[in-house]
Amino acid sequence: MKILLALDDSARAMDEAVRLASERGAGLTALFVLDTGWSVYIGSDFLLGSTARSKFLEYTRDDEYAQERATVEAFQKRAQAAGLDCIIKTATAGRVPEAILAELAEGGYDTLIMSQPFRRGLEVMRDAATQVLKKAPCDVLFVRREE
Amino acid sequence: MEEKSSVAKVLAIVPGLAVMIGTLFLLRTYVEPWMKDAVVFGQKGWLVQVLSLNYILLSIIAGIIYRNVFFGGKIPDWAEAGFRTTRLFIKSGVIMLGCLYTLQKLAKVGSIAILLISTFVFGTVFFVIWYGKRIGMERSMIGVMGASCGVCGVSAAVATAPGVNAKPSEVALAIATILGFGIMTMFISPFIGKALSMSDYQFGAWVGTGILNSGQVLATCLAFNPTFAPGTAVAYGEIWNVVRVISIPFVVFIITTWACKAEAAESCSTGSQMSLGKVFKDRFPIFVIGFFGMTALSSLGWLGAEGSNTLHLMREVMSWIFGIGLVGQGAYIDFRELRRAGGKPLRVGLVAGTLKYVVALIVIMLFVSKDASF
Predict the structure, then answer these.
(1) Do B236 and B207 meet the contact criterion of CB atoms below 8 Å apart?
(2) Which residue in A35, A46, A58, A59 has the most chain B C-beta atoms within 10 A of its own C-beta, making it the best mutation to test that interface?
């Protein structure tokens, strides 16, 4: 059995993925998607000068990397505590749900685990769960976010 | 990632741009003339005269429909590069708007614009700081909301966020709030303007002061009166817009300095090293110089006298440029994203935005005469 965990800052989703993988003896892959959609998100704004625009995009990129480090570290701690060997991947292409679906299509996973609502990058503004659920080629387990 | 060649980059623009141009062509050639003749509630042209559904608002509506209905919430890859040119179109249009003025005329209206804009921009910033603190919003988000409600929506939010260390995800929520509020005001303002029999001067001054987003100021003025000429709503609204744009670096500096004052030095390094000169250099929108350049040419009489073929052609080109750009602007509005706006940024945005909009209306109606300075 192969499980894919779509990483965001939800500790419950990480715990649930580690628990399920341990119980089932499944292979667990954690995927962190760096959101590269900011340039498009602010694309219509005509007042920004190129310096202000590029500074903001650099700022969002640095923030994405910082979140990647923090999230992956939090997940690794949990996996190590459970004695679980995991694969950690980072994706950068397209929107977050598209990157998750691409990994599902490539990796032949049996189950996807993700938090709901899924809060990764600009997905705070969107409904990643619905988009993934519509096209996912495997079972999907949504984990309710902690309050 | 494979780098595209210059030719490929230009070709990638074609499909999206063709959609934008084709849409505007259909709207101007068939839809708007039909609406002008259509009888609704027993009145010929009700849709255009009462609802202001001229080609400008129709362009934005068409863009919104593309994004939210036909494109399923995301501009498709084949059209993305083309739709991205929307900024270029509107920026070029704003530069060309400079030909509607002479320096003497700008000086006449400019002082009123500077007074009103300074009062409302800094008044809104201080209100947001006070209200944000009162409801316990984070200092960084108060900074972003202060800039975006005070000056001009998305640009100010984006220009301020790095300096105050605002979380990008929260900036996204702030942008959604501002855009959502702006769309609402964009559609109701022409209706209010006509109901109160506002002159072009009053209307331009009001929306230029009261609407949060600069692109939406232009669209709203053109919805009220789609004519490009001196003395129209867009001519006045744009003066207010330009004054507002020039104030961005000052607002960013003040907010960043305020936000960083109470933060630890290490978490606010950008702010502690900031000088007004550096902020001005980084944040000043260069196209404003182009706008004044056009005004200078107009003042020297190099664009011909009022009624000349050159000016007529320029105004016709402007109407197309803005129309195409506004189809693109509409396509960047995703209602699913706007619906997610919430929490404290929404509360602050709604309260500050409504207050600014209503107080600006009252001030304009009480203190600004119907007769324009030019």
Answers:
(1) no
(2) A46
Within-domain flag for B11: no
Q: Is the whole model's pTM more than 0.90, yes or no?
A: no
Please give the residue of chain A at the shortest CA–CA distance from B213.
Answer: A45
Looking at the domain assignment, is residue B197 inside a domain? yes
Is residue B199 in some structural domain?
Answer: yes
Q: Report CB contact under 8 Å: B340, A124.
A: yes
Range(s) of the domain holding residue B187? 90-367
Structural domain count, chain B: 1
Angle at B260 between CA B256 and CA B266, to 5 degrees: 125
Element spanning B43, H or E: strand B43-44
Domain enclosing residue A12, as ranges = 2-144
Give the model's pLDDT for residue A73.
97
Distance CA B141, CA B118 (A): 22
Q: Is residue B66 part of a domain?
A: no
Nearest CA among B147, B226, B179, B139 for reference residue B335: B179
CB B124 within 8 A of CB B254: no
pLDDT of residue B72: 87
Token pair, residue B82, equals: 């083309």
Q: Does B36 touch chain A (CB under 8 A)?
A: no
Domain count, chain A: 1
Q: Is B84 on the interface with A (CB under 8 A)?
A: yes
Whichever domain contains A101, its CATH number is 3.40.50.620
Residues contacting residue B199 through CB under 8 Å, at least 6 positions apart: B370, B371, B372
CA atoms of B135 and B7, how far apart (whole Å): 53
For this complex, say whether ipTM is above 0.90. no
DSSP, res B275? -
- B279-318: pLDDT as tens digits: 777 777 788 889 999 999 999 988 888 788 888 899 999 9
| CA dihedral sign, ordered B322, B324, B330, B331 | negative
